[in-house]
Amino acid sequence: xxxxxxxxxxxxxxxxxxxxxxxxxxxxxxxxxxxxxxxxxxxxxxxxxxxxxxxxxxxxxxxxxxxxxxxxxxxxxxxxxxxxxxxxxxxxxxxxxxxxxxxxxxxxxxxxxxxxxxxxxxxxxxxxxxxxxxxxxxxxxxxxxxxxxxxxxxxxxxxxxxxxxxxxxxxxxxxxxxxxxxxxxxxxxxxxxxxxxxxxxxxxxxxxxxxxxxxxxxxxxxxxxxxxxxxxxxxxxxxxxxxxxxxxxxxxxxxxxxxxxxxxxxxxxxxxxxxxxxxxxxxxxxxxxxxxxxxxxxxxxxxxxxxxxxxxxxxxxxxxxxxxxxxxxxxxxxxxxxxxxxxxxxxxxxxxxxxxxxxxxxxxxxxxxxxxxxxxxxxxxxxxxxxxxxxxxxxxxxxxxxxxxxxxxxxxxxxxxxxxxxxxxxxxxxxxxxxxxxxxxxxxxxxxxxxxxxxxxxxxxxxxxxxxxxxxxxxxxxxxxxxxxxxxxxxxxxxxxxxxxxxxxxxxxxxxxxxxxxxxxxxxxxxxxxxxxxxxxxxxxxxxxxxxxxxxxxxxxxxxxxxxxxxxxxxxxxxxxxxxxxxxxxxxxxxxxxxxxxxxxxxxxxxxxxxxxxxxxxxxxxxx
Length: 624
Hints:
It is a single chain. The protein is mainly beta. Helix content is 6%, strand content 57%. It has six helices and 34 strands. It starts with a strand and ends with a strand.
């Protein structure tokens, strides 16, 4: 993919190696490694400086790739796999480097997004037209962010200005009666800046659950051969102002309201709200001292219905505060900070506890020693539910030669139990401990006149994994309960490269994964469910005057849907084609043909995925 990774992994499938060889043999313009990223260190640095495995997807990539959704945009990113329960707008889970979906931290404009009940961010409700940039950092980062960052951190930045006042408009229609619209404007004026973006999406959808699920006692447990639609309205507001040389601030608001239909016997539709609101104040205290204070709140709200009759609700809100000081001294950068977080829950269910507070204190040191670089961080989290937890990480880099960097890292991370695991009536177990992980990684990456490439290998040992324990039966848990009984060992490798061949911009990624259950039970040594052992992606794009053409090819190996490895999901390959025509300097017509060969496949047992479909989009944005 021409989305620009900074690092990747090593042992890749033979098929992916052939893709790499094809692209590597041709000339290329180097990737823009001067792009500034912030997620890997909580400070600004260029991609070339990072010691972590980072992939950046920017607004230009989004418009070129024409993805149907955020999940579609992320598909094929090194180490990242997606599981979708039945098409557009349905529950979508991210598995990063083989870790669980609730072991990946998702941020929107620096604020944690996700449900405190199930621990998963609703990425299906974040419209791609609201996104300016995505930073994906792979590896353990609890030492900077606290809970959930076992597999990595995904930070989504909403739209912001690139210059003077600029409006934008996009209108589209496609298969399944898809209708999309987006409009906004952004700009800079004097010492201030602003960005406003509104979006709408509506689709008739597909039948989410394959007929036969009731008999197989799988997926939705129902046979309801109908179309399951989805609609979403999104709004983002951002702005900032520089008050003086020493002081500046910014604020943001994002809200997405969705309605999703699906198949089921206890519920068949949900109204959802994902919301982020907050602000930061930055003080440039001295040439070598910067202080940032921020506050915010994120919300994950859902109302559940059966035949249009209210059934249940799960509303979780996170109130967040942070204070961070960055101090340059002795040629290095020292950071120290404090995070405060309160999780609150409102539900029709009678949870025993409706709130908890976490306080985190962290410190980080970044230093260059000639051709070597070091990043070290430690953190202490104190949680009102489970007590204290210490984490740390150490990353090292060595510029072996010009354009060639060797990296190595070791880190620990954890995930706090969710409210469902702790307190759900007749199920939750309040004595759960946090899940823990230890991760080691080795990487090599290079840039040269022909382009860029990167490989890396890693191992992640996760203990105290929370799983259902049928033996934990008492008066409060008549049917068993979750318990810290599992262990897992994940080994993997990634590779990425970008090049230009005869005018074609090429990108390739590949990942190999060996995620194994290491609990001492009958499933010992089995593959963890819903993770394919091999995935790869190839992107190719070229411009011909006003025309531009491109395509993406994604291939996934088989996987199992259950821990016992009895329900096998076959491998598949998807081909997406795209075409764009510049009507003039400001107007562009785009056409995307997705799943061009109408491949039937499933990422979760008995949940359907879209067949061949298209989207035609008219896009307006004045040329700068």
